[in-house]
Automatic annotation (TrEMBL), chain A:
Organism per entry: Aeromicrobium endophyticum
Lineage, highest ranks first: Bacteria, Bacillati, Actinomycetota, Actinomycetes, Propionibacteriales
UniProt protein name: Acyl-CoA dehydrogenase
Keyword Oxidoreductase annotated: yes
Gene3D superfamilies found in the cross-reference section: Acyl-CoA dehydrogenase/oxidase, N-terminal domain, Butyryl-CoA Dehydrogenase, subunit A, domain 2, Butyryl-CoA Dehydrogenase, subunit A, domain 3
Family: Belongs to the acyl-CoA dehydrogenase family.
Automatic annotation (TrEMBL), chain B:
PANTHER family to which the protein is assigned, alphabetical: ACYL-COA DEHYDROGENASE (PTHR43292), ACYL-COA DEHYDROGENASE FADE34 (PTHR43292:SF4)
Family assignment from sequence similarity: Belongs to the acyl-CoA dehydrogenase family.
Native organism: Aeromicrobium endophyticum
Cofactor(s) required for function per UniProt: FAD
Protein name per the record: Acyl-CoA dehydrogenase
InterPro entries, alphabetized: Acyl-CoA_Oxase/DH_mid-dom (IPR006091), Acyl-CoA_Oxase/DH_mid-dom_sf (IPR046373), AcylCo_DH-like_C (IPR036250), AcylCo_DH/oxidase_C (IPR009075), AcylCoA_DH/ox_N (IPR013786), AcylCoA_DH/ox_N_sf (IPR037069), AcylCoA_DH/oxidase_NM_dom_sf (IPR009100), Mycobact_Acyl-CoA_DH (IPR052161)
Alphabetically ordered keywords of this record: FAD, Flavoprotein, Oxidoreductase
Record-linked Pfam families: Acyl-CoA_dh_1 (PF00441), Acyl-CoA_dh_M (PF02770), Acyl-CoA_dh_N (PF02771)
Residue ranges annotated for the Acyl-CoA oxidase/dehydrogenase middle domain, each copy included: 127-221
GO cellular component, one term: plasma membrane
Domain Acyl-CoA dehydrogenase/oxidase C-terminal intervals: 233-390
SUPFAM superfamilies per UniProt: Acyl-CoA dehydrogenase C-terminal domain-like, Acyl-CoA dehydrogenase NM domain-like
GO MF annotation terms: flavin adenine dinucleotide binding; oxidoreductase activity, acting on the CH-CH group of donors
């Protein structure tokens, strides 16, 4: 078993400042009603919001090194951005492009990294969004340089300019880059329309070979995604707790604020305990990724096992404790429930992570 | 217990003797070890206290030098590595963890001189006379009465859940001195001599079969007014300060992965491959994650409060700790299957030390039931979180303004 490391689980001043800047921009450009309109097909707020985050704030290349045009920050800062994106259920491809695709590309010398970092090109790793870093990787077939096949339920493909495609070769998994204009990207009606998925069909398209032996790079990208998805889940859970606490203080029935009833107080105390615990797990995963810790895989497994379920629990409690209003389309609680539930199924899901963790820590199933 | 009452001589130029940095403090400890090599335990420990090397954070004359609390562990390490006599903190947890900081904060100079040294050396063990049959979660409802009689108080009542009462010399005691005022205002805090003839200690057998705790019956116990801690009527304020120390104590601190109950149950799993089944494995891994997240939460809380005392956020830690321990110990019995049907021993014994991870799986299962009751029930902790952290309103209450004697009993 790898040794747990003693990492800083709090926030630095720089991280706090970054959070304030991101939160301000989201408050201005990520209105909950506009987010709800995504479910009715109006995606018009997505591009200006992403432009603000990616280019104006320079977050597209947050974790890309400065010599390749990025901000040279670490996963700790990216985690803070994701907490804020979760709190706002923001419909932007930060996790898919700036974390997962960027990490996958780090070992290539492709100029794609530079345009990704500049916010000019959005990139997506073309795998089903439910793929865990330790799963067998689905891949597209290649014949004489031409890619053929379909990849279903891909996150970030709707927004992507370039798709990174795992391709099966005789030597293993290679990684190709394909312009999204050359393939058929079919958006699907998704449980969570704030991260709308798409089926991607390759019908004999020529791709650019990025990496011949790409399995490690792809798995590393997915693992970074797991480590930092936990922070998005934390942000979702925090919003749910805060919004619900504010609501039950305000809502009056039986002559008093319903938040004074122990039946509700105790449930919210449990949500608080879960949120605080999720914060520890998510910060540990982000810090482990930033420090390239030997304990990263365990940290990811713990964070995904825990934060996935806590975000769902917080969102479910938010819907319930808001009573009737929580069940309406008008109130934003449903946006968080859908995002939380879809996030839980993403990148492996808690059950798969726990089974993987069991092997890592020497608790065999049989 | 006469020899321990003598007062350590104070140096006249105290400020000059105060170690200025950690290195100097460590040198002082090393010199002390050289000078007192081979002394018997009591003499050594008293001298260590007088040298300000007991609680380095306590003021001069009270076993320390008013130094940063973080330096304590270095000093303890030096003494431990030298194999010097120990004050056996494990058998005086109430004294060291609760009585001492309370006496330090609220005691008179005379009380600090009389009590702190023998408490620290372990010559005098302490217990806590707070809870009563009618005052558990509602501690402010204590009905043990203390009546003034000249220079003394006469105390009559019943206390319960008193660990160490059967071998304690002293107790911190919360008693009602005025029934005509609302309950929080009518209590006073005392330092009670447990050898008083009016004290009757009886073991309180619990569901494990053993008796960690006692019932304590007080009949006309006499306490000199000089052993009242704080002002008459200030008992609630002082008891609250004492209990804040208890939470720190029970909430636990940073530890290595798989420390505590998860370590025990994971070891059982690894030892019994023939007992493995998919449902047990799923539940074990869920709890493994919960335990690891608790560990990380503890680490994070410690980083947040480098100056020692967590706020009400510590309540969340204890809540998780109790739930995880209870589920783990229940799971362990299921893993053991047939072996889980056997219990080691129901004999009434009085353990000097209680190890939650000790004895057998059946004991651990039963003992863990107390984790969500002792030191604040999980229900009270949820009230604390929802009211003090989340700012939710408290339930309407009738017992805060009426005189205590008029409340329904």
């Amino acid at each position: 078993m790898s040794e747990p490391s003693d990492l800083d689980l709090l926030y630095t001043d720089v991280e706090d400042d970054l959070r304030a800047v991101v939160r301000r921009l989201l408050a201005q450009r990520c209105d909950p009603h506009a987010v709800a309109a995504l479910y009715d097909g109006d995606r018009s707020p997505v591009a200006p919001l992403w432009h603000g985050l990616a280019t104006e704030l320079g977050l597209a290349g947050l974790i890309v090194s400065e010599d390749r045009g990025g901000a040279g920050a670490t996963a700790r800062e990216a985690a803070v951005v994701l907490e804020e994106l979760g709190r706002a259920v923001a419909p932007v491809p930060f996790l898919t492009s700036s974390v997962i695709a960027a990490t996958t590309l780090l070992d290539t010398d492709s100029t794609l990294v530079r345009s990704l970092a500049a916010g000019e090109t959005v990139v997506a790793l073309t795998l089903p969004w439910s793929t865990a870093p330790f799963d067998d990787l689905p891949s597209i077939a290649v014949d004489r340089g031409l890619l053929t096949g379909t990849m279903t339920s891909v996150a970030g493909a709707v927004e992507a300019d370039v798709l990174l495609v795992p391709v099966a070769t005789d030597e293993g998994v290679a990684l190709y880059a394909v312009s999204s204009e050359e393939v058929q990207v079919t958006p699907i009606v998704s449980l969570d329309m704030t991260r709308q998925l798409a089926d991607v069909c390759f019908s004999g398209v020529a791709g650019e070979l990025m990496l011949l032996d790409a399995e490690t790079a792809v798995r590393r990208g997915l693992e970074a995604g797991c480590a930092l998805l936990a922070s998005e889940q934390l942000g979702i859970a925090q919003w749910c707790l805060e919004a619900t606490v504010a609501y039950v203080k305000d809502r009056r029935q039986f002559g008093r604020a319903v938040g004074g009833f122990q039946a509700l107080k105790h449930r919210l105390a449990d949500v608080y305990t879960g949120v605080e615990s999720a914060a520890a797990a998510a910060r540990y995963a982000a810090a482990s990724l930033a420090a390239k810790s030997d304990d990263l895989s365990v940290a990811c497994g713990v964070a995904q096992s825990y934060c996935s379920d806590q975000a769902v629990a917080a969102a479910e409690e938010a819907v319930q404790l808001h009573g009737g209003i929580g069940m309406t389309w008008e109130h934003p609680a449903h946006l968080y429930l859908k995002r939380a539930k879809a996030d839980q199924l993403a990148l492996g899901g808690p059950g798969a992570h726990r089974r993987q963790l069991a092997d890592l820590v020497g608790i065999s199933a049989s | 217990m006469s020899p321990v009452v003598t007062r350590p001589r104070h140096r006249s130029s105290a400020a000059d003797d105060r170690p200025t940095d950690l290195a100097e403090l460590c040198r002082r400890a090393a010199d002390f070890l050289d000078d007192h090599d081979g002394q018997d335990s009591a003499t050594f420990l008293r001298a260590r206290f007088d040298a300000g090397l007991a609680w380095v954070g306590y003021p001069e004359g009270c076993g320390g030098w008013g130094l940063p609390l973080a330096w304590q562990s270095e000093v303890d390490r030096i003494f431990e590595e030298a194999g010097s006599p120990s004050n056996r903190p494990e058998v005086n947890d109430i004294g060291l963890g609760m009585a001492a900081p309370t006496i330090l904060t609220f005691g008179t100079d005379e009380q600090k001189r009389r009590f702190l040294r023998p408490l620290w050396t372990g010559e005098e063990i302490w217990c806590q006379l707070f809870s009563e049959p009618g005052a558990g979660s509602d501690l402010a409802n204590v009905s043990t009465r203390a009546s003034r009689d000249g220079d003394e108080w006469r105390v009559t009542g019943q206390k319960v859940w008193t660990s160490r009462a059967h071998n304690a010399q002293f107790a911190i005691l919360l008693a009602r001195t005025d029934a005509d005022v609302p309950k929080h205002q009518g209590m006073t805090y005392f330092l009670c001599d447990m050898t008083d003839p009016g004290i009757d200690v009886r073991p309180l057998r619990q569901i494990t079969g053993e008796a960690e705790f006692n019932e304590v019956f007080l009949t006309d116990v006499r306490i000199p007014d000089s052993r009242r801690l704080g002002a008459v009527g200030d008992g609630w304020k002082i008891a609250t300060a004492t209990l804040a120390n208890e939470r720190v104590h029970i909430g636990g601190q940073g530890a290595a992965r798989e420390t505590g109950m998860i370590g025990v149950v994971a070891a059982t799993w690894r030892r019994c491959p023939d007992r493995r089944a998919p449902d047990l494995h799923d539940r074990l891994m869920e709890l493994w994650v919960d335990a690891e997240v608790s560990r990380l939460s503890g680490m994070r809380l410690q980083q947040k409060s480098t100056h020692g005392r967590p706020g009400p956020e510590g309540a969340a830690m204890k809540l998780s700790f109790a739930r995880t321990n209870q589920r783990l110990t229940g799971l362990e019995l299921e893993i053991l299957g047939e072996d889980g049907l056997r219990y080691s021993d129901w004999t009434l014994v009085r353990p000097e030390e209680v190890e939650l991870t000790g004895r057998d799986a059946g004991y651990r299962y039963l003992r863990a039931k107390g984790n969500s009751i002792e030191g604040g029930t999980s229900e009270v902790l949820r009230n604390i979180i929802s009211e003090r952290v989340l700012g939710l309103p408290s339930e309407p209450r009738v017992d805060k303004v009426s005189p205590w004697k008029e409340l329904a009993k």
